[in-house]
Write a structure and sequence with these properties.
- With 328 residues, this protein is an alpha/beta fold.
- The protein has two domains: 1-144 and 286-328, 3-Layer(aba) Sandwich (Isopropylmalate Dehydrogenase); 146-282, Isopropylmalate Dehydrogenase (3-Layer(aba) Sandwich).
- Helix content is 38%, strand content 17%.
- The chain is built from eleven helices and twelve strands.
């Protein structure tokens, strides 16, 4: 592929959700984006027929060219035919196999980046497979010791020290090791992937008012502040801890390249309010580029032909941009 058009491996996600519809709409509306859908071709053909998409769906094999106007598919077969809006634990292994095979394509250099659609964590766990999310699954698959979830909406970036944890478990996970590694990964990936020479990282406090000098919790004084000091000693432009209730004002955001939040719902509600439908999930710390949509499976509208592919589009565009930034 050319530098301007790197092949992207795309996993549509749970076959019962809106992912297959969105992936096909993306391919139909943006033939300039070279996409390789990693999915069951029969599922894609049935979905395309329901949507009135006329493009040919071609089963791709290693070495095949990717031609404009066709929809190319790396075949992974469903365990059972999928019905829109109806989850089936029998297809949980299919969802994970799509991710495994798409990752292999990227690791082998056959695709430049991985773009993932929405999965349903509950049905995968119901199938007896422990699964806390894409981020953790891909980290294990890639052998990455530590990764960081970051969401991007335009110029707003929010990264997380912890991801899918119950709130009562978060304070125990705010450790020097976790904050130190998150700061290193965010700094390195913003430099290498996003081409920001000296990323400025605003670090949020864990507690209200960043602990109020220890009166509202000790973690900010005893754990967060020392981690920031160590990061600065390593040459990382980090500052804080900043109270979360004032960190997202326009003045505060104008002074940073990324906000590092301590937990999932501390930072992501603000970002999704600001950019829902165009926000992109990026996994930092992987040995390859991975972006994802910012929405779930939306089972209530699956199969109705009304799903909006815009988030998939933004995820694919950011993946292309990161591929270019990494290969100037």
């Amino acid at each position: 592929m050319t530098r301007e058009a790197t092949l992207l491996a795309v996993t549509p996600g749970d076959p019962a959700g809106i992912g297959p519809e969105c992936a096909l709409r993306l391919a139909e509306r943006h033939p300039d984006l070279p996409l390789l859908l990693v999915a069951d071709p029969d599922l894609l053909r049935q979905t395309a027929s329901r949507l009135g998409i006329k493009s040919a769906i071609r089963e791709w094999r290693e070495g095949d060219p990717v031609s404009a106007g066709d929809i190319h598919c790396h075949t992974v077969k469903l365990a059972r035919p999928a019905r829109p809006g109806v989850l089936d634990p029998a297809n949980a292994h299919y969802v994970l196999d799509c991710l495994r095979q798409a990752t292999t394509l990227v690791q082998k250099g056959l695709a430049g980046a991985l773009v993932t659609g929405p999965v349903h964590k509950g049905i995968i766990n119901d199938a007896g497979i422990p699964f806390s999310g894409h981020t953790e699954f891909l980290a294990e698959l890639a052998g990455a010791e530590r990764v960081v979830m970051m969401l991007v909406a335009g110029d707003l970036r929010v990264a997380l020290v912890t991801t899918h944890l119950a709130l009562r478990e978060v304070p125990d996970a705010i450790t020097p090791k976790n904050i130190d590694s998150a700061l290193d990964i965010v700094h390195d990936d913003l430099r290498q992937r996003f081409a920001i020479p000296t990323p400025r990282i605003q670090v949020l406090g864990l507690n209200p008012h960043a602990g109020e000098s220890g009166h509202l919790g000790k973690e900010d004084e005893l754990v967060v502040k020392p981690s920031i000091a160590r990061a600065r000693a390593r040459g990382i432009d980090a500052y804080g801890p900043v109270p979360a209730d004032t960190a997202f004002t326009p003045v505060a955001l104008a002074d940073c390249d990324v906000v590092l939040a301590m937990y999932h719902d501390q930072g992501l509600p603000v970002l999704k309010h600001a950019g829902f439908g165009r926000a992109v999930n990026v996994t930092l710390g992987l040995p390859f580029i991975r972006t994802s949509v910012d929405h779930g499976t939306a089972l209530d509208i699956a199969g109705q032909g009304v799903a909006n592919p815009d988030s998939f589009y933004h995820a694919a565009c950011l993946a292309q941009s990161l591929c270019r930034a990494g290969n100037p």
